[in-house]
Amino acid sequence: MVEVTHTGGEENDAFDIELKNFPPGSVIAFRVSLTSSARAAIALMRQNLTLFGFKMRSMSGSNLRQSDKDAGLKAILSRMSLSALNRALFRCHEEEADEHHGNGAYDIPRYGRFVYCGLQGLIPLLNDVRVNNDLGHPLCDNLRRGVWLGEYTAKRLQRHPSTKDLGLWFEQLFKALEQVPHYLRPCYFDAALCGAYNLVREAVWQKMNEFVQGGSDFLRALALGTVAFVGDCPSAKLPALSENIAAPLPPDNIDMESGKRVPCPSSLAAAEGYRSSP
């Protein structure tokens, strides 16, 4: 009545099922399970999600301990300046394209570019998808088709010295996503990205004074806005500062063209690009 044919390769447990001589009124039941690679990938993603406070269980049902990657991420964020966190969270398409010669905001077919190249560009979309359970959204379709968005997030951060370590951390976080079944990718991507975003956002506030740290949600949101509009933009540099300037000195970074460390004071000039963003 049933002919099962293995159509996958050595690493792909795919089968075709063909019903033969199946008379009307017949009933058949199939028992299916995830492939070994998919189970391993989901187990790794669940373990990673514990560092964001999620209470996760293994495939066997036992509780998972919090991942030790939590300390690594917090250490990376503690070393980043507010200018570097601006790069991780924000930056519009024009800023990114100007600095990296053509690279810009991620573009989703049937939707368009994100408003921001950083993590903040994803959050409103993920919130809408989650609230409305809109799995037909172009973002979900893009995630099901491939892991390009995770790769973009990691590679973009790795291009600049101030965010390179964070980019490498994201690369490890999303490495297992490729083996996760395509219909589960939006769920796990949302949980991982939003969890990381919350920690990055908290790192921003921890670098501000106690008035902001202990303030209301509205106050903290306003403080986050200052990071959005003040950043390092190589094509809009401030005039050279005096060598006699008193501490605290502005942050410095490695110039990507000369390879030398140069002062990179943040400027409101970086906000000019936001006027042209959607």
UniProtKB/TrEMBL annotation:
<dbReference type="Pfam" id="PF14702">
    <property type="entry name" value="hGDE_central"/>
</dbReference>
<feature type="domain" description="Glycogen debranching enzyme central">
    <location>
        <begin position="10"/>
        <end position="157"/>
    </location>
</feature>
<feature type="region of interest" description="Disordered">
    <location>
        <begin position="252"/>
        <end position="278"/>
    </location>
</feature>
<dbReference type="InterPro" id="IPR010401">
    <property type="entry name" value="AGL/Gdb1"/>
</dbReference>
<protein>
    <submittedName>
        <fullName>Glycogen debranching enzyme central domain-containing protein</fullName>
    </submittedName>
</protein>
<dbReference type="GO" id="GO:0004135">
    <property type="term" value="F:amylo-alpha-1,6-glucosidase activity"/>
</dbReference>
<dbReference type="InterPro" id="IPR032788">
    <property type="entry name" value="AGL_central"/>
</dbReference>
<dbReference type="GO" id="GO:0005980">
    <property type="term" value="P:glycogen catabolic process"/>
</dbReference>
<dbReference type="GO" id="GO:0004134">
    <property type="term" value="F:4-alpha-glucanotransferase activity"/>
</dbReference>
